[in-house]
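Task: sequence in, structure out. Protein: Argininosuccinate lyase.
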Amino acid sequence: MSDGGDHETADANADSETVVRRDRFAGGPARSFLSSLSDDERIFAADLAVDRAHVVMLAEQEIIDRETAGEVLAALADVADAGHGALPDGEDVHEAIESAVIERVGPDGGKMHTARSRNDEVAACIRYRLREDVLDLVETVVGAREQLLDVARAERETVMPGYTHLQPAQPTTVAHWVLSYEQALQRDTARLLDAYERVNQNPLGSAAFAGTPFDVDRERTAELLGFDSVAENSMDASATRDFLVETTSAVATLATTLSGLAEDVVVMASKGHVDLDDDYASTSSIMPQKKNPDTLELVRGRTGDAVAGLNGLLTNLKGQPRAYNRDLQRAGRHAWDAIDSVTESVEVAAGAVATADWPAETLEAAAADGFATATGVADLLAMAGVPFRTAHEVVAEAAAGLGPEEDAPDYAALSAVAEDVLGEPLSAYVDRDQLEAALDPAESVAMRDSRGGPASDAVAKQVSVAEDVLAADSEALTDRRQAVSQAADRRQTEVDRYV
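Result:
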């Protein structure tokens, strides 16, 4: 990603193919090594937007005349229509666009670069494009949460086994499990929206790093580009890439959430606890009976892309002195790669869960494995007045006496242990019907009706709260998109005044 050079103005007599470097620096074996033009296609449209806002501001501030501004803006429209592939050779997209403008306008085209450096220019372009990527990712996550909530509503009564340490632990429901990931995605959404606030700041007008003697209006370019505020200190504004770090960190955290979901589904599929739709599975090249959860394995694997991107970005930045250094040319790609990879992962992971079949009978039977209702029995005794640790001891002793084919002790076995530990039979504390109900996975789930628990009513409340948060996040996304769109309309209206 471009981040080249720190020359503030263009010589009107410069050759258009070497508009920045001139003849002295135009050749040599390192030219291609320095160039980021091919990678810069991602910020081509962003650069054109930044150029237009800057030129409008220059004309409004009477730094360049209206006629020159009109010619430059018309040339930029022609460059936009021709596309990135038609740009002349250049060290980066910024030089190439400027060269293309000079080709069309003549030497006065170089006035476009008055009162700025490629340093503040590229910082503005990266922020402009990155905010679009962040909003696209937020939209994808919001859509995924909608899908998960649909599953939660449909599977509210579907009992399933819950695990800790991959061992049978307690019965829960598919809805409760799904909502645990929807809750995590709420936080991932919040982190991305929070990072957006730091991304959406205007560095233009900072020039190389030490400001400019021209009477620039940084608030005006912020308004025309849809930035919420101005990045105040000119050295920090041109040099910093911590907004990339914050965004990539949020993306890596999101990827980790998805990796956990993917791992759960892979394990469930191996036990026959979920049947993935064929669109999200594949078969073996040699074993035709197999149905593999390949898409979820790739979701899990792509987490490495995001984590590597964060590590690569931090390593790139950690040793750089203030202000601009060419290392920054390699910084942006880490964020782009992470965002692209994880955006696809969100779509696939949510789609796999939303289209899966959850075999209710199989899941409920598995929910009783390994005496998974043991805690419910201990809770029942504790509610009858037995100290919980004592109740825990009763149930633990009963569990220790289970045969290899037994998943839970019967009433008689529990009563015998209770008499041994408590000195009284179970009937002194709970009746048989209560205890046998506690041994049933569905009844065990129904008991757990505390806030946030898996009982049906508790899940319904969680869904209701999640719907409210989702609506608020959707509104925040819409507000930000509208602000960006309105800024584009304002910018075009101003451009039309000159062209």
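The CA atoms of residues 373 and 470 lie 34 Å apart.
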